[in-house]
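Hello again, I could really use a second opinion on something today. I've been puzzling over a protein and I'd love to understand its fold better. I'm sending you its amino acid sequence along with the C-alpha cells. It would help a lot if you went through both lines with me. I've dropped the whole record in just underneath, so have a look.
***
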Amino acid sequence: MTTLLTFSLPLLFSSLVWSGYLEYDQDVLIPDDWNHAGRLDPTEELGLTFALKQQNTDLLESILGLVSDPDSGLYGKYLTLDEVSSVVRPSKLTQKVVHHWLLSHGITSCLTVHTEDFLQCSMTAAVAEKLLPGSKFHRYIRDGHSVVRSSAPYSVHDDVHEHLDFVGGLHRLPPKGQDLSQASSNRELKQSEAGVHLGVTPAILRTRYNLTAADVGTAHNNSQAVAQFLEQYYSPADLAEFMGMYGSSFKHLSQVDRVVGTQGAGKAGIEASLDVEYIMSTGANISTWVFTNPGRHESQEPFLQWMVLLSNMSDLPWVHTISYGDDEDSLSAAYMMRINTEFMKAGVRGLSLLFASGDSGAGCRHLGTENSFRPSFPASSPYVTTVGGTSFKNPFKVSYEVTDYISGGGFSNVFKMPDYQASAVDAYLKTVAATLPPQAYFNTSGRAYPDMAALSDNYWVVINRVPVPWVSGTSASTPVVGGMLSLINDQRLLQGLPVLGFLNPRLYQLKGKAMFDVTEGCHLSCLDEQVQGKGFCAAPSWDPVTGWGTPNYPELLAALLAE
C-alpha cells in the first residue's frame, strides 16, 4: 500500500555546501520539436521522484540467475513483493538522511512504495530549485502536450549524494511515438486470392506461427499486460470492432480487464490500439491489463512512473510488453543502472518483461566526422527480453520470413555481455567476421540484442472504428511474442508449473530449437561511405537483427513445458 510520509525531525543542512551531480552524463538538451513555453512560476507545484540507494543489488542479481536458470534447483522459485523488499530495502541510515534532507527544505508531502526505495514528493518550483542546485524548471510543449523539465543539470547536497541513485522529473522527455503508419499506403489493394493476403491479421499470425483454434487461454490465474507511455489511449470500441472482424476463428475476450492509470478522452492512438489488439488476439482469451499514463503531473516521467508502480503492486500480470525506448547515449548511467535493478526486481518475482528493439536498425550517432551505431535502452538491458522484427519474403503470401530492415539491434555501449548469451554471440561474430561492419562502429563485448523476433510489417489495426492497413514496427512484433509467452504460461500454470519469468537464460539454452531461423536481410544504419546505410545482417542461429528468429509455437510450447 502507498504510504503517506510526513517528516517531523528537523535537521539543518547548509544550503551552501553542494557538489554532487548524480547524473553528470545525462543529456539535458531539449529536442527541437519541444517548444519553450516559459520559466515555471516559483509557486507552481512539481512532483519529483527520489530513487533511494538500495541494498544487496548483487544478491538480487544472484537470485535472478538462480530462479531463471533451468539447471538450478531454485528455478521458478520466485519471490513475493515482501521478500523482494526485504532484499533491496534502503538502509535505515539512507532513509533517515534522505527524509531529513527533504524536511530541512520544508518538504513534507511524500509517498513511498512497498519496497521503500522510491519517494514521490510534491513541492513548489522554488523549493525544488533550492533543493537541487543547478536545476531551472521550464515548461515545454509538443503537439499540444506540455511537460515541465529542468534546462540545466541538477546536483544534490554532499550528505545525501551517496544515498540516492537519481532524481526523476528533471530530465528525460517522453519519446515521440514511433512512426508506425502506412509505410506503403499507396499500394493498390487487390482482391484476395487463395493463399494470398493483404497484410498481417490475427489469422495470418496464427497460420505462420502454427497456433490452432485450441491455442487460447483457460487458466484462471493467468494474465498479461501492455504498458503505454505516450499521450495516447486504446479505445474499447475499437478493440471490440477488431475482435469482431478478425477474431471469429478462435475464442477471445473483447474487453480489457483492468486499466491502471487514466485513459484519456481523446482519439485512440495507433500504437496503443496495436498493442492491445495484438496481445489479446495472440494471447487469446487471457485476462489483459493496460498500464497507461497514470494521470501524470507535467513533471513526471511516464516510464519511471510505471516502474514505480511495479514496486508497489503485489498482484501483477505475468507478461508485460512495452514499446518504448531511448538512445542509450541520451541517458545517464546512474539512471540506466537503477532501471536495470528494477527489471531484476520484476524478474525475481516471475514477471516476463518484453521490450521492442526499436525501429531504427543499428541506429547512427554522429560525433564530429566519425559515426557509430546507436544502441537503444531498455532494449539493451541484460535483464529483459528484447523483440526484433521480420517481414514475409513475399509480402502477399504466408512465406518464410526475412529481416525487417527497421528491426532494432546491436550491442550495448553500457552493459557488458551477459553470460547466458556469450557463446551464441561469439559464434555469430566468428561466422560473419568477414562481412561485419567496422569495429569502430560497435562494442563487441556489450549486451547484444534482440533475443527473438516476430513479424513487424504490414499489420491491420482498427483505430477510431476504421480498419487501417500497413501499420509496421517492432511495436507490433512485441505484443505478438508476449501473447505467445502468455499462452505458454497458461499451459504451465494448468500443469502446476511456475511461470516462465525472465526468459533469456532458458531461451539461449534452447540454441534456436523451436524457432524459425531468419537468415536473410540486413537492417539499416549510418548513411556514410564506410557502411553505406547497412548495419548487421541476419545469419544462421542467433544474430543482432532477429535474435534466435521467430517462434514456432507448438515446438516452443513443448520445449518450455519440458522440465
About this structure: The two ends are 36 Å apart (CA to CA). The mean pLDDT is 89.
